[in-house]
Hints:
single chain; Rossmann fold
Amino acid sequence: MARNSDVVPEVQQSSNRLRSLVAVSLAKAREETKKETKRTETRAAQLPRLLKIVDLLRKSQVHERAAELAASRKPQQRTLCQPIRETDGRFKKNGGDEQAFLQKLSPLDFRAVQERKLDNYCEVRSWFFESPQYAQWSKGKAWHLSCYGEPRCGKTTFAAAVGRDVRSRADAGKTAVAVLFLAEEDRGRSVSTVPRIGTVQAVLRTILRQLIEDELDQGISSALLQDLASSHTHTVDMSPERVNDYTLAEIAKFDAVFVLIDGLDSLDQVTQAALRVEFARLNTLTHVRLMFIQAPDEVRRPPGIRCNRYQECDGSVVLYWHCKHCSDGDFHLCQACYDEGHHCSVESHVLEEPYHAVEVELRTPPDELVNYIQQRLDADIMSSSDLGKRLSDAQDVVRNVKNTVAAKAAGIFVLAKLYMDYLWEKQSLNETLDVLDGLPQYQTDYFNSLMDEVEEQTDDDRRLALAAMSLVATTCWEARPLTFEELADALHDMLGDLADDLTEHKLLQIAKGILTIEARVETQVKPFHMDVNTYLVEECEERFADVGLDIAQLCLESITAAKESFEDVYDQPGALLERLNDKPFVRYALQFWGQHLSVSDSLEACESARQFLAEYEESPGLQAATFLAFAHNDPWHRWPGSHKLQLCAWFGLEELFAEERSAADINATDAITERTALHVAVMRGQSAIVTDLLAANADTGRLCKQGRTPLWEAVEDYDVENGDLSMVNAILEHITPQALNAANPCSKGETVLLLALRLQKTEIAEVLSQHPDIDLSVQDSHGRTALHFAAQNGNANIVQRIIERDEGKDLLKRCDLLGHRTPLMLMLEREYWGSEQDDEDDDADDDDGNTATTTEDPRLMILRLAIQKGADVGVADESGRNLLHYAAWAADHLPVLRYLHSLKMNINATDRRGMTALHYAAVSPEGDRSVVETLLELGADPAATDAQGQTAHRLAVLRGAAQDIISALETPSAASDVEPEDSPLWAQILFKPEDFLQTYEHGLAGLPNSIVTQTDPLGLTLLHCAIEARNTQITQLLLNDGRVDLKATNLHGQTALLMALTDSIGDEKLLPMVHLFLEDSSHDFGSDRVDYLAQTALEIALSGWHNDIAIGVLQHCETLALDQRQMRTLLMRAIEVDSEVAVKKLVEAGADVFICRRGDKLPSQIAEEEGAGAGVVQLLSDEECSVLRTMRPVVAPSRVDSGLGTD
Length: 1207
């Protein structure tokens, strides 16, 4: 790598000249100190600081210039898919071939970055490594760790230190560590500049590279390297799905994998969202631990939780356990009490950690700050010139330095760094002592001294600097940081020609260190510390008076000036986007003018806003520009709408809203989203405007394009941790029965109650279920009622409430359309009900002679209540199974089994395959000997046979059940079952696949249809069994045989493909088998079929993040029922793989093509850059134009009664 001085000699020369001028000024100032006033003396003392600033600016500029040159260099063609070189099919251990492969897999060597960061490292956060958060995270949790700190507080170095600490504590050969420095460069390249593959794939490939490096370091042979070496191409031109497969395979080799992500917030929002999806997928793996290190922009503080044993422990907690079954929802235990074995007073209740992330502030305690200062003194001062020698003999001065700097930094690490940099400029003992005395004692004093330097510049530089600081402070405080391009454009609008020659270098120079430019995809300008931002906003009003910034007015003026340029291209996406990109601040202004106005008291801005609103509805250009501006800002592309009331509702402009409401149609809908102002206000949490609209009789039942009512938006946006139900309650006070029970045609016919139950938002579900107008008998498109959902999810209180409220509607007898299952069947099928007291020592007889437990199982309690309400326990599902079969299959319902038997149910009742409850207990995947023994005790017949003549013992042997279950089922007549010689074909596939393949390697043509179409006792076809056996060869043989029914389902309503997709979420070995279904377009596997959870193959593939498979399934689908987020994911992938069929289906299904952007490009432009076919590009281009052409001057429609709104 070239030296910085070679890269940018002009920067070095410029900084040398500036240093000379400063030195001359310093000499003159010192000569005048005896004659001049105290002000001159102060200035002389401050001038040395300029030397340091010049050096810092030079280093910053050199770094930026080097990055620009690196980015501008043309990369070699097809860098990532050139052959490594000819090999003999093997990689030499630690040889050049391995390194060449790793470099081509990912050119980012973050291990080298980590080593550089740890050079001369001083530990300033040892408390973190001793914290309970770090200890628990290291053990492996469902939550991830989020560490946040101020800019320049050493977060990246901290990430490197954590990586080193994890490695030092880990067992060799069992742990892997991947550290991602997303805001750093390695040899002039970052994750955002890797050619061809994009940022997301660059990150994922870098994780894979580090996993392989750990594997090689620990002497483990890498199967991935061997696999690629033996291929005919020797390349790493892998598809994203293949990268995913290899990553999962590498992860599986370790007991624990730690992934540390530093600087995710430095990437653009779209890339952040895509990476968070990938990281969330990794976090589902039990042995993967994620840690994010980032700035505190959007950090959410944990709620104040107290341990229920607060009288015996510290009480206030960060790590805690929550009882998910207590009706009051208030039972919590701190981690320490949980570790000691304490639990909820109801022993059957289950405790869980109810959070997804634990947040830690990267503070620096005073004692560790002193350690840092000592290290700087040791490394920098004492190893240098004569000053170091003198300081080594002046320990009192050293102590003075440490104590003074630590005290004045006030625990802020970045201030300590600045102070030490300042002291480094002093090369004499006397000057060092003088400077210590002159250091500002308080933060405000220090900030004032910096601002004094700004004010002492030439008038033009002073005005430009103050305007820049005023803009940066205001936008950071009220909205988001400006990019440098947005700031420069805004300054030009404010100051005209004065800002024409503004560069990043000049901005840093005139801001005197107060502003910093963060190296992001879009460079953001911020104060160097959050306290500085507070200081600029709260303490510098008088200093900024000459600038006269009215940010809301500036936004509106900039929009007005650009308005005419939008009108003639509003329906030409490319031209409109180009004009927006030419005026970066206008794009910002369109996004945030209202946000600034909502906190402004400017009468001029309010008047400008009135004029803007009047023009907005008549201007397709303004509407289209706003639409594109929000597409750039929001990763999910939510935008206010085409009506002025919707704009006011979006920004919470209550006074303007009140003015405009009387003359507007409050129920007018946006042409693109079909949302009303009430939808928008609810989405944005604008409670005052929601109240106003409801009081004005707004339509609470209007459905938007996605089938959502305003109440639906409130339920979906409800934050469980926050627990604020005010928005929901406000709507419920004005809602009509029709709107309350309206079905969403875009979400399987769900009502808001079914939505709340599906999302397990229990608080809302309880409120809705108690509403007097709620219709508990409403069914979704699969025949499921609220009772089905509540029973399936384990909402015991709601189940009980619905049963008690059932007034002649026979909800307990309602069967769904998925498997003809009653709510009680779903209750026994699910595992979310906690553990039961099933020890016989705890059993007792109640007054009626029935078996009860000391702490009654909630399912048993509900079952008793259901029987009292007339439930029919003998009803069977479509497979002929009754409640006894379900209880035996679940294998943990002993009290329920006994209670059902007490109701005189036939313990030997059979399903359509002739199987009794004992058969199910024998082959249950949750097999438990106690269940088998209980059934036998209750009279189950071990000699009973199913339709194929198999006893429970025979099935247990054939299905490979545990030995204790087989032993419990043994009878004298069962001896012949131990070594079966006539194993059916399905058993051979499951347990003797090698014999099966040897016999049928050329196909199944010689077998009769009755054999090929046979099923095992659980309804598994031969193809299901091949999937369960994870055998690709047998799967291929069966798929080649046209007699195999691809639509046949098992006990869970799953076709073989649905079963393979579901199981692949936890076992990636199944993915090649899934591909076999999709490779042959003639395969009719029923792509629109759903399992008993109402999931299609497409939905299951998306839930497992298998996007390539989802694209393959999509091409077989006749209809799509996906939400916008799912369609966004598929559309992005369809563009990448150039699937015209998939793109066409998604566009026809209503996918929002504008959420598929990257940077400042349209989807059609991205497709063209990716090399997609002309058909894909044209489809996207036509849809983009079609969307923008819906922008028309608003004509308020006459109100149409939807039948759902308020009278």
